[in-house]
Amino acid sequence: MGTSISFSRPDGKEAKGYLANAARGNAPGVVVIQEWWGLSEQIKSMTDRFAMAGFDALAPDLFEGVVVPYHDADAAAKEMNSLNFIEAAEQNVRGAVQYLKRNGAQVGLTGFCMGGAITIIGAAKIPELTAAVSFYGVPSPEAVKPADVRVPLQGHFANKDDFFTPQAVSAFEEGLKKARKSCEFFRYDADHAFANEQRASVHDRQAAELAWGRAIEFFKKHLG
């Protein structure tokens, strides 16, 4: 459904990504951030799904063409650890937001796992954003403080998660509420990455569909 494109980062460098357009013109936009596996077929299918839901959707390729097989967590960790999350948010992700916003559209940001953490960084550091939805990812306290978040934020988190633990999620949520930020966090009795239907060992269809419906409703409310 979608196609590979190039777009400009704020610093003028070129970035690449996967774009899927909604059937109607003048649609709001959603930027979709990858897991630590790279710009996989799963992320492309989610980008297509946002387009079918009525959004122009763009997934920037943060690993520059590298896609790690699901069985190789060590290689995925190596790729993720070599990525500067702040630069990725302020350059590649912001460039994608600016690309979708070029016709005056409202733009939201979402991401999964690593991409969920970068989503919240973007919610604090990208001025063109209108709303954000994080799937099972929160940034480190050094990267972003809850009080820095600028836009309404929705989060979907797993109760069985050793990567982004329930304790870390609750601490971030409490910080958001203390700072009187607009936020709503949902927990699911599921494993980390429960929305990834290509990983049968962790995919939970009921939780994934419930989270998806909530995310779409949230974006339609805030983006139009």
From TrEMBL:
Residues 17-222 form the Dienelactone hydrolase domain. It comes from the Bacteria. Pfam families: DLH. Signal peptide: none annotated. SUPFAM superfamilies: alpha/beta-Hydrolases. InterPro entries: AB_hydrolase_fold, Dienelactn_hydro, Dienelactone_hydrolase-like. PANTHER family: ALPHA_BETA-HYDROLASES SUPERFAMILY PROTEIN (PTHR46623:SF6), CARBOXYMETHYLENEBUTENOLIDASE-RELATED (PTHR46623). This is Dienelactone hydrolase domain-containing protein. It comes from Afipia felis ATCC 53690.
